[in-house]
Amino acid sequence: MTEQLADPEDAKLATLARAALGRASAAEGAAVRDDIGRTYVGTAVQLPTLQLTALQVAVVQAVSSGAQALEAAVVVTDAPNVDDRVVRDLSADAPVHVVRP
Q1: Residue 94: count of CB within 10 angstroms of its CB
Q2: What is the pLDDT of residue 3?
Q3: Distances in Å between the alpha carbon of 69 and those of 8, 15, 24, 49, 59?
Q4: pLDDT band with cut points at 50, 70 and 90 for residue 52
Q5: First CA to last CA across the chain, in angstroms?
Q6: pTM of the entire structure?
Q7: Is the dihedral angle over the CA atoms 30, 36, 37, 38 positive or is it negative?
Q8: Is the pLDDT reported for residue 23 higher than 90?
Q9: How far apart are the C-alpha atoms of 90 and 67, rounded to whole Å?
Q10: Which of 15, 28, 54, 64 has the lowest CB atom count within 10 Å?
Q11: Residue 37: left if φ>0, alpha if ψ -120 to 50, beta else—which one?
C-alpha cells in the first residue's frame, strides 16, 4: 500500500529511507523506528551470495543494536509488494508504510 504519511515521525523515517536510497544508488531503501525512538536505515543488498531487502537490512541493524520491538517502518520502493514478515518477527502491529521514490 502506498501512503501519504500524516505522522511527522513516520515522515522522518521516509526522509531517512530516501536519503539512504540516494547514497547507495540502490533499488530500495528502508528505515525503522524501535520502541524507544531510535532509528535504523538500510538499502537492498544484492551480492552473489547474499540478497537482502532494504527492510531486512534496517531490521537487522535494529536487532544488532539491541532493539526489542519496532514502532514503525517505511520502505521506499517501486516494487508492487513488500514482504513485512521481518517486522512482524518483532512487532505484530507496527505499521509498515510503502512510499514511492
Answers
A1: 18
A2: 55
A3: 20, 21, 26, 29, 10
A4: very high
A5: 14
A6: 0.92
A7: negative
A8: no
A9: 9
A10: 64
A11: left
Calpha distance 101→92 (Å, rounded): 26
Torsion of CA 92, 40, 2, 26, to 10 degrees: -130
**Alpha helix ranges (H) inside the chain:** 8-24, 54-64, 85-88
* Cell matching residue 98: 510503502
User: Does the pLDDT of residue 42 top 90, yes or no?
Assistant: yes
Q: What cell does 36 get? A: 524507544
Least confident window among 5-9, 54-58, 67-71? 5-9
Write the burial class of residue 99 (CB in 10 Å: 0-12 exposed, 13-18 middle, 19+ buried): buried
**CA-CA distance, 2 to 30, in Å (whole number)?**
14
How many residues does the structure list for the chain?
101
* Cβ-contact 75, 98 below 8 angstroms: yes
